[in-house]
Write a structure and sequence with these properties.
Blueprint: H1 8-20, H2 23-30, H3 34-48, E1 53-55, E2 60-62, H4 64-88, E3 94-100, H5 102-119, E4 123-129, E5 143-148, E6 155-161, E7 164-168, H6 171-176, E8 189-193, H7 199-206, E9 216-220, H8 223-231, E10 236-240, H9 241-250, E11 262-263, E12 266-272, H10 279-293
Parallel strand pairs: 3-4, 3-5, 8-9, 8-10
Antiparallel strand pairs: 1-2, 5-12, 6-12, 7-10, 7-11
Helix pairs in contact: 1-2, 1-3, 1-4, 2-3, 5-9
Family: Belongs to the LysR transcriptional regulatory family.
Keywords: DNA-binding, Transcription, Transcription regulation
Protein name: LysR family glycine cleavage system transcriptional activator
C-alpha cells in the first residue's frame, strides 16, 4: 500500500524550524537560504491545509497542531537516524554518545567507566557534559543522565541511582576541631555551591539549629569545586552520598554526623524514543543499573 507522504525536504525544513523556533538558525543547520527554507515550510502547510506556525514580527511559535506534528515528525527522524547509524556501524566500532551532568561525570561516572569498556570492547563511549535541560540541549545524544523524575516528551526515563545529602569534610579538619554534634559547625567554615544555594539552610532546619552561625562561609561557582575544597580541608560541604561514596570509602572524606540526611533527586537515564531499542544503549543503561546497585 502506497504511503501518503509530503516532501522529505519540506519535512526536514519544518522539523529544523520547529526545533529551533528560528528560520535563521534552521537555515544555517541545513545549509540553505532563509527564503528556500520558508518556501518549503509554506509548501508543507499548503499540503496539510493548515498553518503550523504563528508568525510575528520578531518571533515565531508553533500552533497547537504544529507542536503535535513536530513531536511525531521529530520522533520519526530520530528512528530513521538510529536505524541509519546501526546500518553504517554494523561492521564498525559502535559510537555511543552520552551526555551527563558535569559533577556526576567527574565524581561518579568516569571512575567506573573502564568496567563498561572492558565488558563492551565494541562500543566507544563519547562522553560530553552539560547541565542544560534536555529540552534546550542542541548537541546529539543517545543517552542523557539528569536528575529526576522528569517527564520529557519522546524520551524513555529510567531511575538507576538514589542519594541523600549530608555534611562531609576532610578527616584532618575533624582532628583539628572535632565535631560530635551539629552545633559544632559554629567553629567551622561552611562551603556553599552557587548551584545549590539553599541546601545548607534546609539541613540546619532539619538538624533543629536553623539559627546557627558558622565561623566562616565560602561560596563556589560549581558543586565539584565545593567538594574539592572539602577534600583540601577548607571547610565542610554538603555532600551527595552517591558522589562522595568513593572518597568516604577511601578515607579522603568523613561524615561527622549520620543524620539528618536530606532527600535528594535521583539520577535517571533519558533515552530518545528512536534509540530505546538500540543494543548499545540498552547495554549501557543496564550497566549503569548494575553498577549503582553494587
Amino acid at each position: 500500500m502506497s504511503r501518503r507522504l509530503p516532501s522529505m525536504n519540506a519535512l526536514r525544513a519544518f522539523e529544523a524550524v520547529g526545533r529551533h523556533l528560528s528560520f535563521t538558525r534552521a537555515a544555517q543547520e541545513l545549509n540553505v537560504t532563509h527564503g528556500a527554507l520558508s518556501r518549503q515550510v509554506r509548501l508543507l502547510e499548503e499540503w496539510l491545509g493548515q498553518p503550523l506556525f504563528e508568525r510575528g514580527n520578531r518571533r515565531i511559535a508553533l500552533t497547537e497542531r504544529g507542536a503535535d506534528y513536530l513531536s511525531d515528525v521529530g520522533a520519526a527522524f530520530d528512528r530513521i537516524a538510529a536505524a541509519t547509524a546501526r546500518q553504517l556501524e554494523r561492521d564498525e566500532r559502535r559510537l555511543l554518545q552520552v551526555n551527563a551532568m558535569a559533577t556526576f561525570t567527574l565524581r561518579w561516572l568516569i571512575p567506573r567507566l573502564s568496567s563498561f569498556q572492558l565488558g563492551h570492547p565494541g562500543i566507544e563511549v563519547r562522553l560530553t557534559t552539560s547541565n542544560t535541560p534536555l529540552q534546550d540541549l542542541r548537541e546529539p545524544y543517545d543517552v542523557a543522565i539528569r536528575g529526576g523524575p522528569e517527564r520529557i516528551p519522546a524520551h524513555v526515563a529510567q531511575k538507576f541511582l538514589s542519594e541523600t545529602r549530608i555534611p562531609v569534610c576532610s578527616p584532618k579538619l575533624i582532628e583539628q576541631r572535632p565535631m560530635t554534634h551539629p552545633r559544632d559547625l559554629a567553629r567551622h567554615t561552611i562551603l556553599h555551591s552557587a548551584t545549590l544555594p539553599d541546601v545548607w539552610s534546609q539541613w540546619l532546619v532539619a538538624a533543629r539549629i536553623p539559627d546557627l552561625k558558622p565561623a566562616g562561609s565560602i561560596t563556589l561557582e560549581h558543586f565539584y569545586l565545593t567538594l574539592q575544597a572539602a577534600l583540601d580541608g577548607v571547610g565542610v560541604a554538603m555532600g551527595p552520598t552517591a558522589l562522595v561514596a568513593d572518597d568516604v570509602r577511601a578515607g579522603r572524606l568523613v561524615m561527622p554526623f549520620r543524620e539528618p540526611a536530606l532527600p535528594a533527586r535521583s539520577y535517571f537515564t533519558y533515552v530518545p524514543d528512536g534509540c530505546a531499542d538500540d543494543p548499545a544503549v540498552r547495554s549501557f543503561c543496564a550497566w549503569l543499573r548494575r553498577i549503582a546497585e553494587a
